[in-house]
Structures are given as structure tokens and as C-alpha cells.
Amino acid sequence: MALFTGKGDGGTTKAFGCDQQRISKASELPEALGALDELNAFLGLVKMRAGDVPRIKDAVRNIQEQLFIVQAEVAGSDKRLAEGAVAAVETFVNDIEKEIPPIKSFSLAGGTELSAMLDVARTLSRRAERRVIAAVEVGARDLAPETRAYLNRLSSLLFALARLANHLAGVAEENPKY
User: Fold this and answer.
1) Which region holds residue 34: left if phi is over 0, alpha if psi is between -120 and 50, else beta?
2) Mapping DSSP to helix (H, G, I), strand (E, B) and coil, where does residue 12 land?
3) What domains, with CATH codes, occur in the chain?
4) 81-92 pLDDT, tens digit each
């Protein structure tokens, strides 16, 4: 099987569930799928950098698995996140919050490299969520409520993991000086 077909050279693509009609690569659906793919790829780098922090590495691996299911649903597959996926994220975030100092202010991204990378992943997850919602709003896809909720919670999970990475490394959060 070839890695390329040349059929997209004119700026169109096909997505699962689109009756094999070609659509613009710049339309909402490919934008949503691309943003999810970008996030998942970046999380691969985050996972490799979290090699010495198994808890974070395992959490990122789990997020990647969940994102593949989300990507499949957005592409038109009948795959769906398992019932309870959102509750599992909420429980994990709540457990992290019990371990780290409470938030008193906004904080500057950084501290450790791993924390900074998780903050970048958080912003990528927000962009992916916006792109997916845009595809839903134009009628390109209809998503399960669990998927919408998962995408909304994902940035909170990544933020909690970023804070945890700094906490585990003994690095205090730095607040902006307005």
C-alpha cells in the first residue's frame, strides 16, 4: 500500500462517512481532524519527555487512546468513548488537585520542560475543541454528548498534569506580575 495516492493534490480529501464525496481540505471537518491529529502527535512528544514520571506518561498515553476514538467519531465512524470517560477524567483531575497546592492566581507556563509541554498541549486541546465544535455547528458531524464533554474536560486535565509535573519536580508556580 502506498503512503500517497496523489488524489488530494487539488486540495480535496475524503472522510469516512462522507459518501466518498471529496471535500475541501480547508473545510471544517478536515480542520477538526487535523487539530485532533496535531494534538495527538504533540502528546507523543510529551509522553516521551515524561519517561521518568510514569503517572504522567501513563495519563498521556490514555489521552492518546481516547483521542483516537474521538478522531474516529469525528471522521464518521460509529466508535464512541466509553460511558464514564468524562467521569474518569474528572476523578483524575480531582485527585491531582488534592495533591498540589490550590490555585491562587494565574500562573506563567513553564517551570519544568514537561510542565511547559503540557501547557502547550492544553492550548492545542482547546484549539482542537474549537475546530470540532465548528464542524458540528456547520452540520459536518453530530457528536455524542460524552465526546463534547470529554473535549471540554481535556484542557483541564492537561492543566492539572502541567501543575503536577512542576509539583513533583519541586518547582513552585510563577505568577504574572500585573
Assistant:
1) alpha
2) strand
3) 25-168 (1.20.1200.10)
4) 999 999 999 999
